[in-house]
Write a structure and sequence with these properties.
alpha/beta
Length: 292
C-alpha cells in the first residue's frame, strides 16, 4: 500500500492524519474512505494493504484516515500551534465523528471527487452509518459495514453493575467531571465518564441492535444508499450468528435500494489472514454498484 501522507483540519480545529492513495488511471469512479474501529488507527488493519492496492488498480481513489478516537489516548494538534488536545477512544464523544468524517470527505472533494463510498470497520461502521443518516450528505454513494458490533452484547456482560454505573456517569457529566477515567467491565480500556455517557446514555452509537430485532433501528432505517455488510465467523460482537445478524440488518434497511451481505467463513473480527477474501468481496460489490 503506497500513498501520500495527508493531514486535515476538522471544523472544531483538530488535525487528523491519514494516507491518500491515488488511482492508477483516471476515472469517474467514487473515492473510498476507510474509517477505523475503536482504539485502532488509519494504518493498523492489515486487510488495508491488499484492499488499497486493488482499489487503486481498478481506478478508485482510497483514503484511510484517523478519527479523533484513534488509539486509546492520543494528543491532537489544535490550530493554535502552542495548544493540543488529549483525545483517543478513552476520551472521544461519539457524535463528534461527524466532524472527522466531514473533514476527510472535504479532502476528497478538494482532490476532485464528487462521490464517495464510506467504509467503516467495527466501531467505524457505527460512525459511517451515523454520518450518512444524520447529514444526508449527497456525496455519499454507498456504505460498507465491516463487522459492526451490537452494543447490547457488550452491556450484557456488565450485569447488575450497569445501572449504578450509568447513574454515576450521568452525575459526573452533569457536575463537570466528564473527563474522569473509568476501568472495569463496562470499559475494556480506560474510558472517560463523558465517553461512557455518549455511548450508553445518549447512546447515539447504538445502531446495530442484532440481539434486539424488535426494537426500532432508527439510523439503519434512514439509510438510502446501497449497503454492503460483512462479518466473519470468529469472535464477532453479537449474540445471534453472523448470518442471523446480517439477515436482521437486511430487514431493517428499509430505505436502501439494495443491502447485500457476506459472511467470511473462518475470518475473525479483524480479518487478519483474510485480506484476499475481503478485497474481492468489496471490490466486486463496488464494481457492481458503481463501477458501471
Amino acid at each position: 500500500m503506497k500513498g501520500e501522507l495527508v493531514r486535515v483540519w476538522t471544523e472544531d480545529g483538530l488535525q487528523l492524519q491519514g494516507l491518500y492513495c491515488e488511482p492508477q488511471r483516471s476515472s469517474r469512479l467514487p473515492a473510498v474512505l476507510h474509517i477505523h474501529g475503536a482504539s485502532s488507527n488509519f494504518y493498523r488493519s492489515q486487510f488495508l494493504d491488499r484492499l488499497a492496492d486493488k482499489l487503486v488498480d481498478r481506478g478508485y481513489a482510497f483514503v484511510t484516515g484517523n478519527t479523533r478516537g484513534h488509539d486509546i489516548v492520543n494528543t491532537l494538534y489544535a490550530r493554535d500551534p502552542t495548544a493540543s488536545r488529549r483525545m483517543g477512544v478513552a476520551l472521544e464523544v461519539f457524535e463528534e465523528c461527524l466532524l472527522d468524517i466531514a473533514a476527510w470527505l472535504n479532502l476528497l472533494q478538494e482532490r476532485g471527487f464528487q462521490e464517495m463510498i464510506l467504509l467503516g470497520h467495527s466501531f467505524g461502521a457505527h460512525k459511517v452509518a451515523f454520518y450518512a443518516a444524520e447529514t444526508s450528505d449527497e456525496r455519499v454513494r454507498g456504505l460498507v459495514f465491516m463487522s459492526p458490533a451490537d452494543q447490547g452484547f457488550w452491556l450484557e456482560s456488565v450485569g447488575e453493575e450497569l445501572e449504578p454505573m450509568l447513574r454515576s456517569v450521568s452525575d459526573m457529566v452533569a457536575s463537570g467531571q466528564g473527563k474522569r477515567l473509568f476501568e472495569g467491565s463496562i470499559a475494556p480500556y480506560p474510558m472517560s465518564a463523558r465517553t461512557i455517557y455518549s455511548l450508553f446514555v445518549s447512546a447515539k452509537s447504538d445502531i446495530f441492535k442484532f440481539g434486539r430485532p424488535d426494537e426500532p433501528w432508527e439510523v439503519v432505517a434512514r439509510l438510502n444508499c446501497p449497503i454492503l455488510a460483512m462479518m466473519g465467523t470468529v469472535a464477532e460482537f453479537t449474540r445471534p450468528t453472523p448470518r442471523e445478524a446480517l439477515a436482521t440488518l437486511r430487514a431493517k434497511a428499509v430505505s436502501t435500494p439494495r443491502c447485500d451481505t457476506i459472511v467470511v467463513e473462518g475470518a475473525p473480527h479483524n480479518y487478519r489472514g483474510y485480506g484476499t477474501q475481503v478485497t474481492e468481496a468489496i471490490v466486486g460489490w463496488l464494481n457492481d454498484v458503481v463501477g458501471a
